[in-house]
């Protein structure tokens, strides 16, 4: 379990009414709100197997999926 201050994204703070140690439901709701706020839903792919990941530069990552 991590504290709200350590877990939240810098430019998207958790709601003030969340406890110091958010529950799994709080985290689910927060991550859903984050994805909605930054329009990330179309970029999210579920049930994919990743075979390789490495940081490249400036918060960019190289990701290879097992199916190419």
Notable features of this structure?
single chain, 68 residues, alpha+beta, two-stranded antiparallel sheet, 2 helices, 2 strands, 16% strand, elongated
DSSP strand count: 2
Q: Give the strand order of the largest sheet, numbering strands 1, 2, ... along the chain.
A: 1-2
* Class based on secondary structure composition and strand pairing: alpha+beta
The geometry reads as elongated
Alpha carbon gap, first and last residue: 35 Å
* Secondary-structure element series: HHEE
Mean pLDDT across the residues is 94
Which stretches are poorly predicted, pLDDT < 50 over at least 5 residues?
A: none
Outline the structure in words:
This protein is of the alpha+beta class and 68 residues long. It contains 2 helices and 2 strands, in the order ααββ. A hairpin with a 5-residue loop joins strand 1 (50-55) and strand 2.
What is the topology?
Layout: H1 4-7, H2 24-37, E1 50-55, E2 61-65
Antiparallel strand pairs: 1-2
Short overview:
The chain has 68 residues and is an alpha+beta fold. Helix content is 26%, strand content 16%. 3% of the residues are buried.
């Amino acid at each position: 379990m991590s504290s709200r201050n350590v877990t939240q994204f810098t430019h998207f703070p958790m709601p003030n009414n969340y406890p110091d140690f958010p529950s799994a439901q709080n985290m689910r709701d927060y991550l859903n709100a984050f994805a909605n706020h930054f329009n990330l839903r179309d970029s999210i792919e579920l049930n994919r197997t990743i075979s390789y990941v490495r940081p490249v530069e400036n918060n960019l990552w190289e990701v290879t999926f097992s199916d190419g």
